[in-house]
Design goal:
The complex is a heterodimer of chains A (about 550) and B (about 300). Chain A has about 550 residues and is mainly alpha-helical. Chain A has 20 helices and 14 strands.
């Protein structure tokens, strides 16, 4: 007698009915997929199907349902096209999404698509995982990365793509490495994921690539024949981690980079101003105290020519009125053999280096850029052409110029007898109405005491060789500034008898020339002058008669 | 999630299975006249303290039907699709609760009488019963005269039976309609001594193109009415290639057409009125409601 109270589980008819029920269920799901809302929710009816402790009879039904479900098209893809099977589509993990929960990378075209419609709720997709729905696998993900890299509107390569996107993409791609999936690692290394400085994108397999900065802030010059990454891409830590996994290395400053740069100069490579600047900044920032071998380094002048400091004098463009630059600008002439360093080197100076205390400007000086004008000729034993030119073209400023340069260059003049003589013989500007030129060695510092004597004993129209200094001298304090003139160049500062002899001579000269012949005024003063000569002579035992001039 | 055993199951006993047998009978009938008149195929149960009256707007008994109802081994039901099983004795289950069944259909009016201890011949031999008025009922009416307390009925708990019947009738759910072929209305009326006290109206409407079915259960008591509507996605499918049932013998015609190799599977998925799935524990129906087995859909199929 059949048990009407429960289902007979052994009958073959009933077992056959299970297929019918499974088919009915699949048909129901397909009908629901035609419905706007139900197509995303039907799986709720199957929520506990796989977990429930079925008896063996009903478990057969569950197994049949599971099998049948994988064979029919019941899931809507993101592009809302025709339905696909469970195995055709994948869930999108947070890691592979951007911050708006959109996929990081576009889907493959046509029937290769895998992204699920956004109409499904996460908890409903959880149900489907028991029926074979998976999150996207890394190889499927990398297929999409590969496609993106190959299309003109690539997200990875676009300038508009956000930093946040790049960080997420890097982390997702890097999963191949963090999970140590050997085959995925090989796939990832074959993708052109490395953005180079020059705009190209290369893969990890295409030769050595390097990070474009060392010690975080120092940029590697781009003309060293090295495959450098785009610096903008390297500032993000997660991207950098991926790049490291893809084989990008750091360059060694001391062993690789500095020698490479210096070799370019040794070889005589063509280096333009930009490159020169980049080289110098790098060398400065990575300079170690004690390194001195910059002898091949050339610099550009303001006219666009490059020079070795050794072979051509280089100076900075300066505001200092005593500088050669200012002197050449205001005089509207050119100093032969003198070059001025291109302003670009100082326009955007690098920050102070951290591994030494030398300033940028000082370090450039150490390459050979001169601070003070040369007074003695480079090769020959005479005054430099610059010095001569200043004396000639800027007589009024020559003394200041001389004092300015003497700090550094005085010794070289003193050592060179011929140059010294030449300098002492140079005619310089003296104070008198216009510019009266007089040899340096015979002129006097315009000390107030001396000047007082002259104004007392000489007429306004009578010239006395007081040096034209651009600022007047106070009593004695200012002598120190000009002491070099007194010490080495025979400039006078005492009111000894030569002073008065000179006075006589000047009076004579100005009265025998021109208009006032035979009309010298105040003849009485001559008496005093002679008197003083006489007393001075007596005071000093030497130097007598030869210095008395003939009237 | 464990499954719930509905309280109704605990009260279930073979005594009241006649209700389901009668429903199945009604569903197996034809309703061409009702269709032509534009009315829905229905069956109503009228419950009185001493009797239950079942009415149904089917086409009416034919001579073949009468022979079938009188026979032991044959069924007039066409094909192996019939769900009665037990070789046509299903209708006889009424005698568990009643001693007399008066069947009126068209111009036919006859009774079957069987009291406990009777030979059983009364179950299969109808007696003509005259009725006062000339009858021409628009429907088929079956009046079951329930057992009463008497010496003959010592072994029957009449009170328990009466309660059970009332409870079963009152507890009928509209979901039954999902698995019936033709009936779309089941009405249950409870009558007191003077007037109707309460009623339960079960109705089904199908939107076949959308696979959408609406079930309504309207309970009226003392004039106050309360209707609940439930919505379902319904899928029907014919299972094929089935083996013969071990518990049945098939007629020659059935063997020839291999009608046994097919069976109807009906799945009903509960929805909200805005078509969002409702997930609850549901029963698996197998002609008779049996214990729930964890599905949250209602299944209907023909086990052995």
């Amino acid at each position: 007698m059949a048990n009407r109270e429960d289902v007979v589980t052994s009958s073959s008819r009933n077992v056959g009915l299970l297929d019918g029920i499974a088919d009915a269920l699949i048909l129901a799901v397909q009908q629901m997929c035609d419905h706007e809302g139900l197509q995303y929710q039907w799986m709720r009816y199957l929520a506990n199907l796989t977990e429930y402790p079925w008896d063996p009879f009903w478990q057969k039904l569950v197994d049949k349902i599971k099998t049948h479900l994988t064979k029919v098209e019941i899931l809507r893809p993101r592009r809302r096209g025709p339905l696909r099977r469970i195995g055709d589509l994948s869930r999108l993990s947070l890691m592979k999404s951007d911050r708006n929960s959109e996929p990081l990378f576009a889907d493959l075209p046509g029937s290769q698509e895998r992204y699920l419609s956004t109409g499904y709720m996460s908890k409903d997709l959880d149900i489907l995982q028991k029926f074979g729905l998976n999150y996207m696998f890394q190889n499927e993900f990398l297929d999409r990365v590969k496609r993106d890299l190959s299309v003109p509107d690539s997200k990875m390569k676009s300038q508009q793509t956000s930093e946040d996107w790049h960080e997420r993409a890097a982390e997702a791609i890097d999963l191949s490495f963090t999970r140590n999936w050997t085959e995925r690692i090989a796939d990832t290394k074959a993708l052109s994921l490395l953005p180079l400085c020059d705009g190209r994108w290369v893969s990890a397999n295409s030769g050595s690539s390097f990070f474009p900065t060392v010690k975080n802030e120092i940029f590697v010059p781009g003309d060293l024949g090295l495959q450098l990454l785009n610096p903008k891409a390297c500032s993000n830590a997660k991207r950098k981690k991926l790049f490291i996994n893809l084989g990008v290395n750091d360059l060694d400053i001391k062993l690789a980079l500095r020698p490479r740069i210096l070799n370019k100069y040794k070889r005589g490579d063509l280096i333009n101003l930009q490159a020169s600047y980049a080289h110098l900044v790098f060398l400065y920032l990575t300079h170690e105290a004690g390194f001195e071998d910059y002898k091949n380094v050339k610099l550009y002048d303001h006219e666009g020519y490059s020079y070795l400091p050794e072979t051509g004098d280089l100076y900075f463009i300066s505001d200092d009125p005593q500088s050669l630059w200012q002197l050449s600008q205001t005089g509207d002439f050119v100093f032969e053999g003198v070059h001025f360093v291109h302003p670009q080197y100082l326009e955007n100076p690098p920050k102070q280096a951290t591994q030494h205390n030398i300033t940028w400007k000082d370090w450039l000086h150490s390459l050979g850029i001169r601070r003070y004008p040369r007074l003695v000729h480079r090769e020959h034993s005479r005054l430099s052409p610059e010095c001569v030119k200043v004396a000639e073209k800027h007589p009024k400023r020559f003394l200041s110029f001389l004092r300015y340069a003497w700090n550094s260059e005085g010794d070289s003049v003193v050592k060179d007898e011929d140059a010294l003589e030449e300098l002492a013989d140079t005619e310089v500007c003296c104070q008198f109405r216009g510019e009266e030129m007089f040899p340096l060695r015979d002129s006097y510092l315009p000390l107030p005491g001396l000047k007082a004597q002259c104004s007392r004993l000489m007429g306004d129209d009578e010239f006395f060789p007081f040096l034209h200094t651009e600022e007047p001298l106070a009593v004695d304090g200012d002598v120190n500034k000009w002491s070099f003139l007194l010490e080495h160049l025979e400039v006078k500062s005492q009111d000894g008898w030569p002073f008065y002899v000179q006075m006589l001579s000047c009076i004579t000269d100005s009265n025998t020339q021109g208009n006032s012949a035979n009309q010298m005024g105040r003849p009485g003063r001559l008496i005093e002058i002679y008197g003083r000569i006489h007393s001075r002579c007596r005071e000093s035992a030497d130097r007598r008669a030869e210095l008395l001039r003939v009237r | 999630m464990g499954f719930l055993i509905r309280l109704a199951r605990e009260l279930y006993s073979k005594d009241v299975r006649f209700i389901f047998e009668l429903l199945q009978n009604a569903d197996d009938n034809h309703y061409t006249k009702a269709k032509k008149a534009g009315t829905e195929p229905y069956v109503s149960f009228h419950h009185y303290s001493d009797r239950v009256v079942i009415e149904c707007n089917e086409d009416g008994f034919t001579e073949a039907n009468i022979r079938a109802i009188c026979s032991i081994g044959q069924s007039s039901k066409t094909g192996a699709q019939g769900y009665i099983g037990e070789k046509g004795i299903g209708f006889k289950s009424i005698f568990k609760v009643a001693w007399k069944a008066h069947i009126q259909s068209g111009c036919y009016s006859f009774v079957f009488i069987h009291r406990p201890g009777d030979s059983g011949l009364g179950m299969i031999s109808p007696e003509w019963e005259e009725i006062p008025e000339q009858q021409n009922l628009p429907c088929t009416r079956i009046t079951l005269y329930l057992h009463e307390n008497s010496n003959d009925n010592r072994n029957i708990n009449v009170e328990a039976q009466h309660n059970s019947i009332k409870e079963q009738l009152g507890g009928l759910q509209a979901t039954m309609l999902l698995f019936l072929k033709r009936l779309t209305r089941i009405n249950i009326h409870f009558h007191g001594d003077d007037a109707e006290e309460s009623s339960v109206m079960l109705a089904m409407e199908k939107d076949v193109s959308n696979n959408r079915t609406t079930l309504g259960r309207d309970v009226t008591r003392d004039g106050d009415s309360n209707e609940i509507k439930n919505y379902y996605h319904v899928t029907t499918h014919t299972a094929a290639g089935l083996a013969r049932s071990d518990n049945r013998t098939y007629s020659q015609a059935e063997e020839a057409t291999r009608a046994y190799s097919k069976a109807n599977v009906v799945l009903a998925f509960p929805l909200s009125d805005s078509s969002v799935p409702i997930i609850e524990q549901q029963e698996v129906f197998a002609f008779l409601p049996i214990r729930p087995v964890g599905f949250n859909v209602s299944l209907r199929f023909c086990p052995d």
